[in-house]
Structures are given as structure tokens and as C-alpha cells.
Amino acid sequence: MKIKTARAVKGEIAPPGDKSISHRAAMFAAMAEGTTRIENFATSADCASTVSCLRVLGIEIEGSGLAFQVSGLGKSGFKSPKTALDCGNSGTTMRLMSGILAGQDFESILTGDESLRSRPMKRVIDPLEKMGARFSHQEFRAPLTIAGVNPLKPIEYDLPVASAQIKSAVLLAGLNADGTTSVIEHAQTRDHTERMLEWFGVETNKVPTGDGGTKISVSGDSVLKARDITVPGDISSAAFFAVAAVCLRESNLRLQNIGLNTSRAGVVDILQDLGADVEIIDRREMCNEPVGDLRVTGRRDLGEISELTVLKGAVIPNIIDEIPILAVLGTQLGGGLEIRDAAELRVKESDRIAAVV
Length: 357
Ligand code: S3P
Prior knowledge:
- The chain contains ten helices and 18 strands.
- The chain is an alpha/beta fold.
- A hairpin with a 5-residue loop joins strand 11 and strand 12.
- The radius of gyration is 20 Å and the shape is globular.
- The mean pLDDT is 98.
């Protein structure tokens, strides 16, 4: 591949379907009663890992590429797998499936590639064991053998790490618990699980805790009802093109159909706060997720911004996957960019801090 330096990026593109939403669409459709058609499914190896794990668990999934039809077996109707479930490189698959499998009445094994087998899983094992599931592992790393139990015990769990994956694992286990399960988060993490559960007819109750946190609850009586889904475009993929357009002065780009959920769209706010020309056009709702088009030009001279830009605290979970490309943007800012509170980047599929450096 030969790449020539560009002076501008111009045109219109529709990035692929959102990865986080695609994982959830396949999993929740499998837990639903009835058949769900999913469109604009992410063209990502991680999401293909989710589909293949679900198939090993007895879920019939027709289709390939961008469109799938999933025949759900209900929230506790998965079949005991004959082989280990290979999550490939995908942390979301392993952590969310842990929550689902904790509440199934059989034993299963979750494994993955070398990177995934080195990533921390104690964060999901701890709450799921409190709910009654049993895990075997070496030093809290995959392969994980899960002895599921149904029903699980409901818990109230204070998230020790601002992670949507842990929150989702506990809420999904809570669907198979004998009562109401709650998760308390102190910084808002992506809420695709809550939104999509609502799409499938499950009530998720959100209340402020009084100290700036939020308590999110689900009832073990909930039933998911199949409902077709079109996945919004992936803002994490769009961010690379948006930053390119912002950095190259003669750019004029339209990014179509982008998921603009506030728990994910921190990158848009940051670009706008810097004075970059990023406009949201035609805001709309798609399957309980906000979406819109983004028009981005390179009109703003970033070199003129002389103060240091600092990103830290509660915004970090909302931009966790965009920090590497924001670091590239930082090289173009006159005053530079400082990023704090982002130690989680060390334990992603790679050490993203080392990679950026
Ligand atoms: C994801 C949550 C984030 C993110 C990952 C996908 C999700 O991880 O980095 O790419 O789909 O819930 P954490 O929740 O562990 O921060």
C-alpha cells in the first residue's frame, strides 16, 4: 500500500456499523424471544467472534456481512457448548458473554487470542462470583471456565473501574437473577446496553446516587422481545476521518449516519470546543440511539491555539477509544495536549499509551 500525503480530505463517507452496538445487537437478539433482523452490523473481526460464540451456544444466525437474522432462545435458553468459545481478540465478547453465561445452567469455557488471554478479567469475575457463578482461571486470565447458575443472586455493585463492559456483564447476569440487580457508576460509561435493553422491552431504572453517581437496575423478571435493529455508524471509526479533516486546512467532509450517543461523542465536543468546524446535521434517533451526519472542514488553524488543552476526569470514559487519534490531533495544536486519568489504555487489546508514544 502506498500512501501519498494529502492536502485535504473531501467527500462523503458512511463508516461501518458501531462495534459496541453490533456486539450487543447479536447477544441481546440471542437472548430475546423471537427473530431479530440486524442491519449495518459492524464489519469487524471482534463482532464476528461474538456471532461465532453465539452459534456454538446453539443460536441460529443466518446471513453474513452486514445483515443477520438471529433466532433468539430466550435469556436462559442457550445450549451447553461442545467446544470452548473463542472470543478472538475481543474483550467486549469475553466480558459481556461472561455475564450471560454466569446465568446459564451449564459449564462453558471462554478463551481468546494471546492478547485477550493476557487481559484482566478479575473485574468481571468478582461481581459474577458474588452472584453465585463459579469461575476457574489462572491469575484471573482467560481461558475462563464458568459454572453457571440459574437463578443467580441479585447484587448491588459499585463499579471499581469506569467500564461499560463490567457494567454490562453485571446487568446481563441480573436478567437471570432472582430479584433486582443494580450497578453504581461514578463516571458515565457508554450506555448502549441500557438503551438496547429498552429497545427489546426491558425496563432499566436509572437514579442519581446523590454523590454524582448513577444507579442502574434491572429486574430478573425481565423478558427480551425480538425487535429489528439497524446499527448506527461507528463514531470511533469516524473520529479518524474527522481528525484528518480538522487537521488538513482545505478539507470538506461529510460523515453520514454517525452514532452520537453523549456517552460516546466526547470527541465531537472536544473538536468543537477547540473551535474546529464540526457541525451536526440532521439529528435523529435510530433504534433508541441518537444519530446524525457530521460536516467537518479544516478551516480552523490549530497552530493558533496557544494554551495547553487538558483532557481528564469524567470525559475520559467517553473518549476512551478515541484518545490515540486525539493524540495525533494534539501534535497539531499550538499549545499541545495533555491527557490524564487514562491508565485503562494500558490494558486494552494493546498498551495504547505505549503504541501512541
Ligand atoms: C466497550 C467499552 C470500552 C471500550 C471497548 C468497547 C463496550 O471498554 O474501550 O472498545 O463495548 O462496552 P471498557 O468498558 O472496558 O472501558
